[in-house]
Design goal:
The chain is mainly α. The protein has one domain: dinb family like domain (Four Helix Bundle (Hemerythrin (Met), subunit A)). Helices cover 59% and strands 7% of the residues. It is built from 5 helices and 2 strands; from the N terminus they run αααββαα. A hairpin with a 2-residue loop joins strand 1 and strand 2. It starts with a helix and ends with a helix.
């Protein structure tokens, strides 16, 4: 049984994480070709006052994996945010995809109005599940995915629009 909450979350997060894995690998390949230590890419930033690639990957992963229990009402599966290498970030992406692939559409049926509360710094955000997904989780996920892409482009990694989009359209 298909449900909109499932259809717009799980497949979208999986596709986005595959795109993230792809662009992270291209950044690692770029670093190797340029004689840069591959794991330096984990610390790259778009601007000095912004957070690095590692944070962008961790947050995209967290948004994806935490959205499911928040919407469907089951316990979150924490992953520590301690990755320091490209290989560790790739493993995190793979683990998140694996967690998402275990989700079943039936877990989301009729949950559109479930209450979702999120602590965002000092502010408590409250949503109905449908609004949480469309107005918070998906925009937040895309923000961190796009920021990782932008960081890599700013460092000279040859990425194009299709490196970002292809997983979404396959």
């Amino acid at each position: 049984m298909s449900t909109p909450l499932y259809d717009y979350s799980v497949p979208t997060f999986i596709k986005g994480l595959k795109a993230l894995s792809n662009i992270l690998q291209k950044a690692a390949d770029f670093a190797q070709e340029k004689g840069i230590a591959v794991d330096e890419v984990v610390g790259w930033k778009l601007a000095e006052d912004m957070l690095p690639v590692s944070f962008q990957v961790q947050t995209a992963s967290n948004v994806a994996k935490n959205s499911l229990p928040r919407i469907a009402g089951y316990e979150e599966n924490p992953i520590e945010d301690n990755e320091k290498t490209v290989a560790e970030l790739q493993a995190r992406i793979a683990k998140t995809i694996e967690m998402l692939e275990k989700a079943e559409a039936s877990q989301f049926a009729g949950k559109e109005k479930n209450e979702v509360k999120i602590q965002a710094g000092p502010k408590l955000l409250e949503f109905e599940a449908q609004s949480y997904l469309t107005n918070f989780a998906l925009p937040n996920f895309y923000f961190h995915l796009t920021t990782a892409y932008a960081i890599f482009r700013s460092k000279g990694v040859q990425l194009g629009k299709f490196d970002y989009l292809v997983p979404f359209i396959q």
